[in-house]
């Protein structure tokens, strides 16, 4: 299984926001911009806009418009489940499609059930982790992100 680039970008954006959110020295939360994200990760603005919009609809980030606008985490990193984020960004589609086109092996095949169980185990495992789990090295990430853009 491979995650979509869309999901990868969403996780990177959340990590970026969480790395600055973890900065105790900031009285005001740092607002990130599309341009910062694009420059930091070398991504296209079109892709980043779509992902940021989706993360906003999921209420994971808050967006602020205007001259000094940007976006920031809407929840604490410990309240953002990796299983939820990945399931939402991936679209939770079937991993094995037996009906379209119809597979002649379907009446005697165990593949669909085994893969479906594996998918649930995958998400069960991820449900043990949150965005905070990815932020063990937040100061180092913050430094990397600051010098990358």
Automatic annotation (TrEMBL):
Checking SUPFAM superfamilies in the record gives:
Winged helix' DNA-binding domain (SSF46785)
Q: Which InterPro entries match?
A: Tscrpt_reg_Rrf2, WH-like_DNA-bd_sf, WH_DNA-bd_sf
Which keywords are on file for this protein?
Answer: DNA-binding
Q: Which Pfam families match?
A: Rrf2 (PF02082)
Query: Can you quote a single GO CC term?
Result: cytosol
**What's one GO MF term for it?**
DNA binding
* Descriptive protein name: Transcriptional regulator
From which source organism is this entry? Pseudidiomarina donghaiensis
């Amino acid at each position: 299984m491979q995650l979509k680039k869309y999901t990868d970008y969403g996780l990177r954006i959340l990590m970026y926001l969480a790395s600055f959110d973890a900065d105790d020295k900031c009285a005001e939360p740092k607002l990130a911009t599309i341009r910062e994200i694009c420059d930091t990760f070398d991504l296209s603005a079109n892709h980043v806009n779509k992902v940021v919009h989706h993360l906003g609809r999921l209420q994971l980030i808050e967006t602020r418009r205007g001259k000094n606008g940007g976006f920031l985490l809407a929840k604490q990193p410990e309240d953002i489940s990796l299983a939820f984020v990945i399931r939402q960004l991936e679209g939770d589609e079937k991993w094995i499609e037996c009906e379209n086109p119809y597979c002649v092996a379907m009446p005697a095949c165990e593949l669909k059930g085994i893969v479906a169980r594996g998918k649930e185990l995958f998400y069960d495992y991820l449900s043990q982790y949150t965005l905070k789990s990815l932020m063990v090295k937040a100061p180092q990430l913050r430094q990397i992100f600051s010098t990358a853009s």
